[in-house]
Amino acid sequence: MDRVIKHTHRRSHPIRHYVKITLLITISALLLDLAISMASISIVKQQSTRYLQDTADLYLTRINHDFDYINHYMGWTLANDDNIEALVPKRQDVNYDEFLAANDNLRKRYTELQKNYGPAYNFFYYSSDEKLLRNYAPMSITYPEYQELGQQLVSYTSDPNVYDKFYSNWTPILIQDKYYIINIVPYHEQYLMCLISADDLIAPLRQINLGKNGFSTLVDQDGRILSSPAADMEQSQESGLSFPFISGPRTTVSKAFTDSTINVRMFIEFGAFEKIMVAQLLILLLFVLVASSLIIVVMYFKGRVLKPIQQFSKNLSRMAESSEPLDFTSSPIIELSEAGLQYRNLIEQMKQIKIDMYEQELSKQQVQLEYMKMQIRPHFFLNCLTNIYSMAQMQMHKEIEYMALSTSSYFRYIFQNNDHFVRLGDEIEHVTTYLEIQKHRYRNAFSYDIKGSDAVREMLLPPLVLQTFIENAVKYAVSRDNKLQIQLQLEQKMDSSRRVLKIVIEDSGPGFPAEILEQLQAGQPLEMLQGHRIGIMNTLKRLESLYDGEARVVFSNRRYGGACIQLFLPQPLQAQLEGEGRYKHECIASG
Question: What value, to the nearest 5°, has the Cα angle with vertex 525 and ends 519 and 529?
């Protein structure tokens, strides 16, 4: 039984159909990613804030307990310790030895107290009668700060409200541009005090990671920051990367001390603590979902888009290599089928254009040949023969030889030169030959001068361009009455990193008629009168064709009489010269 193979016709869709499906899958995956990310960030942020609030509460509880104990300890010392009595200077029954012993006992006692609470706590004794400040534990402040503290204590202790302000109330003071928290316990002109830096007091909270721009600080009741900003910035830089567009605005946790006018403020940008594992699991799930979605999208895109495009590319390559017709209509993407048909039509049009270009090039060569033949003026040829005949009658043998050789060289250059571009030096040699022939005809009626370096003579230009303008100058400017001066200047210019040949042709004749000059400057064609002026117009058309409009010809009259023609001819690119050579080779091979 023969197996019957059925080919099902698959419905084609435009590429936007597949793009919409791809975008739908991608957007769904992104929305799921966003939802999971926002949920995990919210959980982590809430847990971080709760953790930091609990930490701040524990910290404040400990500090309040320390403050209470230190305040109570200093008050008990002033009221009950006999060593304090030995320090009173008004007592006459206290000798020097008892004073030293009492001083030593207090120092040992408060040194032990400092060991329990840390070296940041400084303990001082001050007597308003002596105006003397003594420390009873190792100091963590500098000597200038110690001196300024003594000066401030004079004003504090002279205030009758010192008890209400400082007793059982830890108060911020400014010493040497740095804030300290002080507690003063007064008792009968004697004072014990405890001093701690605001930076040292907040230091434990600064060890917590509050995010890149998060920090902890102390503020007074007026909202003034007491801790060092530099320390806050240092802490904020240690916390790593920050994502403000995800975490949102910073969260502020504020807690107040019990026996103080200062508060603790924690500015939380972002943290990850107890719920970090949950966030990691959610991120892992997100990764799996995104990866799965991407795989599905890639497989779908490969089967429905990439393969048809690859097949389309192969068909284009095969079409470029062979002339056999290919089927572009079997692609499942309508746009590729239409593009294939358009490309096939384009290839056929390009082949036809190529044939037309070759035919146009052949036509251009024929026009150029006809143009060069038109340069041969019958009267010029006859004049040359007449001059040779006259010289023969006068037996001017050397002049006859030179005239015959020059005329031969002149016509040989015209007939044999079929290139688009020739060396300027060859063109100058041809022009010189023409001028010498005319000098034999007109004798001393004109002279000429050609200026240009050897390097400029190696530049290229179309053949017979100079011949046309020089011939025009001789024809219309030579007179038996006044001697004509013809000047030819050759220069090399640079325009947009491309070399340009500048040729200036000047004569001392009557110049262009006003009407003719106006037409030439406006780019208008000249009216042909019995074959005259055809040379200039054909030359301008040749320059327009060969240089694609990049060549410039400027016509003018000189201020003191005479015509001036300036030619600006960009040097042809290497590709143009190679293309000319290939075309000539093909013409020779086909011929």
Answer: 100
Q: How far is the first Cα of the chain from the last one, in angstroms, to the nearest whole number?
A: 64
Query: How long is the chain?
Result: 591
Find out whether 179 and 198 touch, Cβ atoms under 8 Å.
Answer: yes
Residue 133 belongs to what H/E stretch? strand 132-135
pLDDT digits (tens, 9 = 90+) for 78-88: 888 878 877 77
What phi and psi, each to the nearest 5 degrees, are found at residue 398?
-65, -40
Which residues fall within 8 angstroms of residue 18, CB to CB, at 6 or more apart? 300, 301, 304, 305, 333
All domains of the chain in start order, with CATH: 17-202 (no CATH), 276-355 (no CATH), 443-590 (3.30.565.10)
**Rg (Cα) of the chain, in Å, rounded?**
53
> Which of helix, strand or coil describes residue 107?
helix
Buried b / exposed e across 204-227, counting CB within 10 Å, b at 16+? ebbebbbbbbbbbbbbbeeeeebb
- Residues 6+ away with beta carbon under 8 Å from 46: none
User: What residue ranges in 452-548 does DSSP mark as E strands?
Assistant: 460-461, 484-495, 498-507
Q: Give the pLDDT confidence of 563-575 residue by residue, as tens digits.
A: 999 999 999 876 4
Global pTM? 0.42
